[in-house]
Amino acid sequence: MASLKPKNASGAVLLSKLTKDVFIKNISEARAAEGDIEHFCFNKSRLRVVSKTDDLKKNSKGIIYLMSRDCRVEDNWAVLYSQKLALQNKLPLHICVLTKEFNCLYPTKRHLHFALEGFKEIQKECEVKKIGFHFLKANVKDFVKIVEDNQIGAVVLDFDPLKKPVEWRNYLKDNLDKNVALIEVDAHNIVPAWLASEKQEVMAKTIRPKITKQLPEYLTGFPEVCKHNYQGKLDTDKKLKNVDDVYDFYKPLYDVEIVKWAKPGAEGAYNTLLSFMQERLQYYGISSNDPSKNHTSNLSPWIRFGHIAAQRVALEVKSVEKNCKEQVDKYLEELIVRRELAENYCFYNSNYDNINGAAEWARKTLLDHKSDKRVYTYTRDQFEKALTHDEMWNAATLQLVQEGKIHGYMRMYWCKKILEWTKTPEEAIEIGLWLNDTFSLDGTCPNGFVGVMWSICCVHDQGWGEREIFGKIRFMVDYSLKRKFNMEAYCARFGRSIGKTSAKKGVKRKAK
Ligand SMILES: Cc1cc2nc3c(=O)[nH]c(=O)nc-3n(C[C@H](O)[C@H](O)[C@H](O)COP(=O)(O)OP(=O)(O)OC[C@H]3O[C@@H](n4cnc5c(N)ncnc54)[C@H](O)[C@@H]3O)c2cc1C
């Protein structure tokens, strides 16, 4: 897999060094001797045992890693742990994907295409590594029977704080044979979500010291997945042979066009990381907020689909910090602190997708202003079709619909305007989430829920001066965007001009 790793400007392979820390012992030996992965010391706090026992069922015939969120082979603690378990017990390893549960993971053709093209790479890598890879025409219920029929000793799951995956985990906990070990691994976060903090954090400044303190323990290199020594069949009539079969079988809920700029899979992710480090990192925190410029990493789709580990991105970016320390620090603040703060919110707050997830003061201020007069109101359909009076907002929506991603800074403005132009804050959250999750390639992830809740409910933010509709929720004005950035250029990319048609007045500040 070394060929997939990015190279830096001087051409050196950017494989972050695997340090000989206490958690990855004898790593060079483990890498050198194929099949020796059981000798590497896995930091067990990356996993949680969901079942009563983590002992393997007696006379087991295999281990399954149920892949749903972290869809990659290398740099994946869930694959590494599953393989270690399988090798230690001389068992075959199977990676399974439940295609009947795709609705909540891949709601549109756009998301499905990105996921399946990534799975094509995974399938090939599994062939090389002699690991079984299976698309199953099954949901979690069917999966229980497959585990039973195949005398599987342990099932390893991806950690995911969102409702559906939590439901799956609980279903498996209640329905798998009590002798089967069920283990959840946080392969998505650098510091496992259950250790980053023991409670819902108020804002970045409260979680930052907790995460920073734990980084020396968790921001480590990855050992390589090795060729698996033990093979075995997974017997079930629910197998789909390849990606084409999955395309035939699973029809997504919405027919949203695929996007061309983002090549799915680990290779696409590494190339994007490479171009970021070579061309855009130097501007991070300087002009990365400017919507008319492409100065951010653009990595969010691959991180969302698990095609690249945030930990790999952090290691690579950190490896060049001596060249541009300030930019690297700013980037790692977003990638690690802000992203893991979003995970923390969804992990501890089951109302992450509605107004009840707001702090009491924020909910109250929104409800106090619920009946304020709205100068403009639009329906979901009008929003989707970019038919508002504000051409900057329309351009952002066209970017979302056409490119599958709005520039990060515009996302805030975009969502706050939905609050301003809908009848109620509840409706604003619903529409904001629907648009984000349907069209954004990186949608349906904790960052998306928190982005919408930050914009509308001030989650992780503080109270501001009282205004109509917004109450104490932070407000954003169009003239400030126009003053700071070349918004004419941004709009022109989508065939719009802010010249005459933009909003003349925003919502007024309420007189004290
Ligand atoms: C209304 C709204 C909706 C959003 N929806 C999503 C979404 O669906 N998916 C998503 O990944 N992000 C979302 N964000 C957060 C942020 O805008 C995106 O992560 C960022 O724009 C992705 O582009 P990038 O990878 O180029 O970011 P970069 O600026 O290069 O950042 C690097 C990485 O840091 C993380 N990150 C950056 N900003 C944030 C943030 N504010 N909160 C949490 N993590 C962050 C992401 O993983 C991102 O890939 C949303 C923000 C708002 C205000």
Automatic annotation (TrEMBL):
Recorded E.C. number(s)?
Answer: 4.1.99.3
Please write the reaction equations for the catalytic activity of this protein: cyclobutadipyrimidine (in DNA) = 2 pyrimidine residues (in DNA)
Q: Which cofactor does it need?
A: FAD
Q: Name one GO biological process term.
A: photoreactive repair
Molecular function terms, GO-annotated: deoxyribodipyrimidine photo-lyase activity; DNA binding
Does this UniProt record's set of keywords contain DNA-binding? yes
Pfam short name (any one): DNA_photolyase
- Occurrences of domain Photolyase/cryptochrome alpha/beta (ranges): 61-193
Q: What UniProt keywords are attached to this protein's entry?
A: DNA damage, DNA repair, DNA-binding, FAD, Flavoprotein, Lyase
Query: Which SUPFAM superfamilies does this one have?
Result: Cryptochrome/photolyase FAD-binding domain, Cryptochrome/photolyase, N-terminal domain
Q: Could you tell me what this protein does? A: Involved in repair of UV radiation-induced DNA damage. Catalyzes the light-dependent monomerization (300-600 nm) of cyclobutyl pyrimidine dimers (in cis-syn configuration), which are formed between adjacent bases on the same DNA strand upon exposure to ultraviolet radiation.
Say which family it is in: Belongs to the DNA photolyase class-2 family.
Q: What is this protein called?
A: Deoxyribodipyrimidine photo-lyase
Q: Which organism is it from?
A: Brassicogethes aeneus (Rape pollen beetle)
